[in-house]
Amino acid sequence: MNKVDREVAGTSIVSVGVSMSADPDTAVSEAVSQLPDQGICFILVFVPECLDTIGVAAALEKHLPQTLAFGCTTGGQITPQGYADNALMLVSFPRDHFRCSSTLFKPLKPVSIEQTALAAQTLAQRFQTTAGWRRFAITIADGLSKQEDTLVAALQAGLGDIPVFGGSAGHGLAFDVTYVLHGGAFHEDAALLLIVETDLLFEGVEFDHFMPTDRQLVVTEARPEDRIVSEINGAVAANEYARLIGYDVADLSPRVFAENPVLVRTLDNWHIRAIQAVLDDGALMLFSAIENGLVLTLARGKEIIETMDAELAVSGPRGEAPHFVLGFDCVLRRLEIEQKQLGVEASEVLRNRKVLGFNTYGEQHGGVHVNQTFVGIAFFSSGHKIDL
Question: What is the pTM assigned to this prediction?
Answer without folding.
Answer: 0.93
